[in-house]
Amino acid sequence: AANDRFVLEIPKVELHMHIEGTLTAELRWKFAQRNGIKLRIAEHGPELNSLEEAKAAMDLLRPDPSRVNNDEERFQFFEAYYEGFECLKTREDYYDLAMHYLEHAAKMNVRYCELFFDPQGHTSRGTSWAVMMEGFREAQKTAETRLNVKSAWIMCFLRDMSLDSAMEHYKAALPYRDIIVGVGLDSNEEDRPPVLFEEVFSLARRDGFKLTMHCDVDSKNTHEHIRQAASVVAGKGLDRIDHGMNAAEKQDLIELIQKRDLGMTICPWSYLRHTTYAELGPKIRTLYDAGIKICINSDDPAYMEDCWVLENLLLVKHLCGFNDKDIAVLAKNAINASWATPTVKNEIL
Ligand code: ES4
Ligand code: ZN
């Protein structure tokens, strides 16, 4: 619609986007063909024999507000998410994966992004750090020079794996720290509270990395996990919170986040796996009205009916009744919550 032009044209910063969450059926098919491997939607699922079959399998993973709070569905998401890693083998695959996002980002006027990647999911399949990081680095350079999109990487640890594995991967990432701005935590949150990873987050802060962490909306201990992320881990709490939307339900958490001036990365489309439209708008509105630095992001676009940051902005515009001024505040929040250098931040404005 004509009145959505502002949302399209405003310069954007995206801070919560899993590069592996952009593995569309098309990309999976392309990489599987190129590498001569069999494509499946889940480890023990049937082989997918055409692009159409791959698309149909991905379609079943879209969020559907008519079946919210379904544990089965969350399990299916993670199974498919990690199975997708199987088709990535070469440096060229990692380059193409990153470029696919960065080209789309350029079209939406994303000018700077911080992109998550999950190294443990790749090394466990025999991919070397060099293959991964040199592919990413090359894409980053190409995007900056040819597309005017700057980027940095956030290395996420898988919280359903051990602290030892996180520490090992942390150390292995240090040769690539020039392109890694921060450290995050993702994957299945059940029974995996933030404090379990205290040691690696404290070390990363001492080494100069920025810190963030997923506090998913469907976690059983959602409020306690947000509290730990905001005020306990690495001495005083992290530098940002990923999701954490249920803070809207507790005044003390709202005050804690305000006091620490923490940015929060909100991914509206993602929450439709666990939340109804009726709940979603008011929670985001509460955080926004409290003056918290929330920003809007896409999380895993390939799993969300191809909803990228633009579509997520349009969704909150609609659900929260945001006007163009509010959209500008959200865009500004993303710049302020980002870990870009002051020079880069100024260029975006
Ligand atoms: C994720 Cl939706 C979600 N939750 C936790 N970890 C993730 N990694 C990628 N997508
Ligand atoms: Zn995420």
UniProtKB/TrEMBL annotation:
Its needed co-factors are: Zn(2+)
Report the superkingdom from the record: Eukaryota
What would be an example GO MF term here? adenine deaminase activity
Tell me, which GO biological process terms does this entry list? Answer: adenine catabolic process; hypoxanthine salvage
Q: Which GO terms describe its cellular component?
A: cytosol
Describe the location of the Adenosine deaminase domain by residue ranges: 11-349
Q: Which Gene3D superfamilies match?
A: Metal-dependent hydrolases
- List, alphabetically, the Pfam families matched: A_deaminase
**Keywords assigned:** Hydrolase, Metal-binding
The record's annotation in PANTHER family points to: ADENINE DEAMINASE, ADENOSINE DEAMINASE DOMAIN-CONTAINING PROTEIN
Protein name according to UniProt: Adenosine deaminase domain-containing protein
Q: Which organism is it from?
A: Knufia peltigerae
